[in-house]
From TrEMBL:
Its main location: membrane. This is FAD-binding FR-type domain-containing protein. It comes from the Eukaryota. It is a multi-pass membrane protein. The lineage of its organism: Eukaryota, Viridiplantae, Streptophyta, Embryophyta, Tracheophyta. It is found in: Membrane. One of its GO terms (molecular function) is ferric-chelate reductase activity. GO terms for cellular component: plasma membrane.
């Protein structure tokens, strides 16, 4: 579960500004909080291990016997056998979600206590093990998870096969061919059961605002990788499931009749065929060549998950569906909130066009909407398309302004071309009697890490490729603001390595407020910037001059408001409350249906539905906080603090080797945002430096930020 790894590694982040006397006065409270946190963590571990053990035990005779005993003992309850299965399979993950609420609230309070700085050490989540291959960069912790899943699949196949051989004699005297066909049929059935176990986890990583992701402090962009891996494994198992059945039916000559068979009590084969077709369409559009070239097709096709879930439930029935119901329930809660959040119109309060084809949008937000640097949002512009949603990294830090956040959007497709055209039209309005029209957006998010993990390292290396600079502008701004305002800020040495194709992209630096880099900060903060212009052999600019933004405009604000606070980072209490309230409401509603309708009238259909309504909790704040512009003097300061090299790419072996010699024994955070090749190159060098490091050399901790979510 690795809750310790996340939170223990982040203990030095948020420290109290109080003194030792204050800490001593609160020693009793601190001990009580630590005890409560330990009890909650132990309970969550216990529930999780019991839940995981259930999946390993069910394929065996012993596990089947336990399940039958459980059903016999609880089948006489209000919810019957379906309720028993639901409680057994989906109950544990809901219980963990409930317990996560007080645990996260306590952890937040405990992080305010004064903590000693811990010595440098390796961490499973930031040590890259696999850097090449179809899975991309895989950390040690992720590799352990992959191995455990592979072990489970192999174990389940073996256990089910042993059980199948044991029950084979009970079917009487069969010929060798009949035995082979029977074993193939039972294998098909087992592949379906194993795929269903994977489905129990499939929807958990993509609940963007889930309390479980907050518990592990895994941002949605990272969790998406786990969803992709689980999706590939699930489709592989479902393909084996269907293929084996088709072979059995072909041997018996009953393919047409079996395919169209539809049983009302589960086992509807035709529903299974439809479910598989939807799943296959979803999977095909996730393949990198299709997804990158036809993102809209990928996005729209993914909405078929609703039909996939419905027909899957029709195919397997209520008892088996309860195995995956917990994850689906948490996902649907999150999806419901995102739907309500996205209905609100959000004001675009200003726009800026850069010569490199990038557009900057500043979006209105309420003051109580929290987010961290390295966050991102999903954005829809109705003037361009009512259906298209696109993810973008937030380029502003929370310190840039209380009532706005910014995103940088690079022009790379039809949607972004139309957006730039719209912004350019607005920026060309100069006459006093001409009014800027309003631009409204729909926003989901912001999403990201609950804790500002870039602040946990005293030394940082930021590596960006092209538009991957966007989240690092937020990090630099956050660090600069904290240092300038004398807020607690651990980073003292920052190295930014940025590779771009053309020098006109350097104008993006103008939004960071780099005027804060001045001699008065040299004793507190050291920022070094290495820029590589790969497709220009020499500078096309005058020495000491950087491209500026070519146009900017402030837009009228009237109809819209700020981003809704329904979904996003920071508010752990709300994130847990809606899960608890919705779950309790669902159980009560289902209980009332069972008591007054289903049981009295003998209704046995598993698909009786209950729905819980929610309401939006947001406020409209139209206040715009002015941001100081960047002057020519500021840009000159940037040019002097930034080394630009033309016609070459960064040599990470040289860069990391130099850092190892210069920086002493410490934890160095390495954050990469760029294409997969760039991430692999940096991860490979981090791994190499860590494996051959000397005792006085730093430990490099690899972190990646999604470049193409």
């Amino acid at each position: 579960m690795a809750v310790d790894d996340f939170h223990s590694s982040q203990q030095p982040l948020l420290l109290s500004n109080g003194n030792g006397v204050h800490a001593n006065n609160n020693n009793t409270t601190f001990n009580f909080v630590s005890l409560a946190k330990w009890v909650l963590k132990f309970t969550m571990w216990l529930v999780f291990l019991a839940w995981a053990a259930l999946f390993f035990l069910i394929p065996t005779d012993f596990g089947t016997g336990l399940y039958d005993d459980w059903v016999d003992a609880t089948s006489g309850s209000l919810f019957g056998e379906t309720g028993s299965s639901l409680l057994l399979y989906s109950g544990p993950i809901i219980i963990i979600a409930f317990l996560a609420v007080p645990y996260l609230l306590i952890s937040r309070e405990q992080q305010l206590q004064l903590q000693e700085k811990k010595p440098p050490k390796f961490r499973l989540w930031t040590f890259p093990v696999l850097v090449d291959g179809p899975l991309g960069v895989v950390s040690a912790a992720e590799l352990i998870g992959i191995i455990l899943f592979i072990i489970y699949v192999i174990w389940a196949v073996y256990a089910y096969t042993v059980v199948n051989f044991e029950i084979l004699p009970s079917y009487g005297d069969l010929t060798l061919k009949e035995k082979r066909v029977f074993m193939l049929q039972m294998s098909a059935y087992c592949f379906g059961l194993i795929a269903l176990s994977c489905l129990a986890f499939l929807f958990l990583p993509i609940a963007r605002g889930s309390i479980l992701l907050r518990l592990f402090d895994i941002p949605f962009e990272h969790a998406t990788r786990y969803h992709i891996w689980l999706g590939n494994l699930t489709m592989f198992l479902l393909t084996l499931h269907g293929l084996c059945y088709m072979i059995v039916w072909a041997i018996r000559g009953i393919i047409p009749s079996e395919i169209i068979e539809w049983k009302s009590d589960g086992g509807a084969n035709f529903a299974g065929v439809i479910c598989y077709v939807f799943g296959l369409l979803i999977w095909v559009t996730t393949l990198p060549p299709v997804r990158k070239r036809y993102f809209e097709l990928f996005y729209y096709t993914h909405q078929l998950y609703i039909l996939f879930v419905i027909f899957m439930a029709l195919h397997i029935g209520d008892t088996y569906f309860s195995k995956a119901a917990g994850g689906i329930f948490l996902f649907m809660l999150d999806r419901f909130l995102r739907f309500w959040q996205s209905r609100k119109n959000v004001n675009v309060i200003s726009t800026t066009c850069f010569p490199c084809g990038t557009v900057k949008l500043e979006l209105s937000k309420p003051g109580n909407l929290q987010y961290n640097a390295l966050s991102f949002i999903f954005l829809r512009m109705r003037e361009i398309s009512w259906l298209q949603w696109h993810p973008f990294s937030v380029s502003s830090s929370p310190s840039d302004g209380k009532y706005h956040l910014s995103v940088l959007i690079k022009t790379v497709g039809d949607w972004t071309e139309k957006l730039r055209g719209k912004v350019s039209e607005e920026s060309q309005i100069e006459l006093p009697f001409q009014h800027h029209s309003e631009i409204l957006a729909s926003v989901e998010g912001p999403y990201g890490h609950e804790s500002p993990y870039h602040l946990m390292y005293e030394k940082l290396i930021l590596v960006a490729g092209g538009s991957g600079i966007s989240p690092f502008l937020a990090i630099l701004s956050d660090i600069l603001h904290r240092t300038k305002k004398k807020k607690r800020c651990l980073p003292r040495h920052v190295l930014l390595v940025w590779a771009v194709k053309r020098s006109n992209e350097l104008s993006l630096f103008s939004i960071t407020g780099m005027e804060s880099i001045c001699p008065s900060f040299s004793d507190q903060l050291n920022i070094e910037i290495q820029t590589y212009v790969t497709r220009e052999s020499e500078s096309s600019l005058e020495q000491g001059v950087v491209h500026k933004a070519v146009s900017s405009s402030a837009l009228s604000i009237s109809k819209g408001g700020g981003i809704s606070v329904l979904v996003g980072t920071g508010n752990k209490l709300w994130a847990g409350s809606y899960v608890i309230i919705s779950t309790v409401g669902f159980v009560i509603t289902l209980g009332l249906l069972d008591t007054f309708y289903i049981n009295p009238f003998g209704i046995s259909y598993w698909w009786t539905l209950a729905r819980e309504e929610g309401e939006e909790d947001g406020e409209k704040i139209d206040t715009m906080q002015h941001i100081e512009g960047v002057t020519d003097k500021d840009l000159g300061t940037l040019a002097r603090s930034c080394s630009v090299r033309y016609g070459c790419r960064p040599d990470f072996k040289e860069i990391f080797g130099s850092i190892s010699d210069r920086w002493d024994h410490s934890d160095v955070g390495v954050i990469v945002c760029g294409p997969p090749t760039l991430q692999s190159s940096v991860a490979r060098e981090c791994r190499s430096q860590n494996l051959k490091r000397r005792s006085n050399h730093p430990i490099f901790h690899f972190n990646s930020h999604s470049f193409a979510l």
